[in-house]
User: Which sequence fits this backbone?
């Protein structure tokens, strides 16, 4: 008699493939947040004045997110669990893809910037929400919940600005 989850079980292999160490998860999240910070910082001088304040604000918040992850990674309690494996979301590749910055040129279109930024914030929201579901109870789960709420708020701010641009014919 063979086990339902034996050695050749494709579902078991898929679950294992979707697991990463806490260290890998934190490193990817830190790279994502650092890229977002850089993305927004580089936009400040390229976007028109009405968007500058929002973009500068988002750069600061992404910097704060990076520092949160850095603090968690360097905390003594985390060090004891850095090799622990955690299930990552099915859409983990989408989040990881956003670690790379797009080429925006010197005069990027406000609408295109906002669309791209909303996509990044949505991917971050989904990723952190899913990680909050699979993370063990405690500070890490709380961090992922907090960040998913933050990313959803960022997306809302960007959507508000986007609709102002679309419905008013420009910034």
Assistant:
């Amino acid at each position: 008699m063979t086990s339902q989850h034996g050695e050749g079980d494709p579902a078991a292999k898929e679950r294992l493939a979707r697991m990463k160490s806490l260290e890998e998860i934190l490193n990817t999240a830190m790279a994502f947040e650092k890229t977002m910070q850089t993305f927004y910082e580089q936009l400040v001088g390229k976007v028109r004045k009405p968007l500058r304040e929002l973009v500068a604000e988002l750069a600061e918040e992404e910097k704060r997110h990076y520092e949160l992850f850095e603090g968690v990674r360097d905390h003594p309690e985390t060090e004891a669990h850095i090799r622990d494996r955690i299930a990552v979301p099915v859409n983990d590749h989408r989040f990881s893809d956003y670690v790379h910055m797009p080429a925006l040129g010197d005069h990027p279109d406000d609408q295109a910037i906002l669309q791209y930024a909303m996509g990044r914030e949505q991917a971050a929201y989904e990723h952190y929400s899913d990680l909050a579901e699979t993370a063990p109870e405690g500070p890490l789960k709380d961090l992922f919940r907090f960040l998913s709420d933050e990313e959803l708020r960022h997306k809302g701010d960007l959507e508000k600005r986007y609709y102002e641009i679309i419905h008013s014919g420009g910034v």
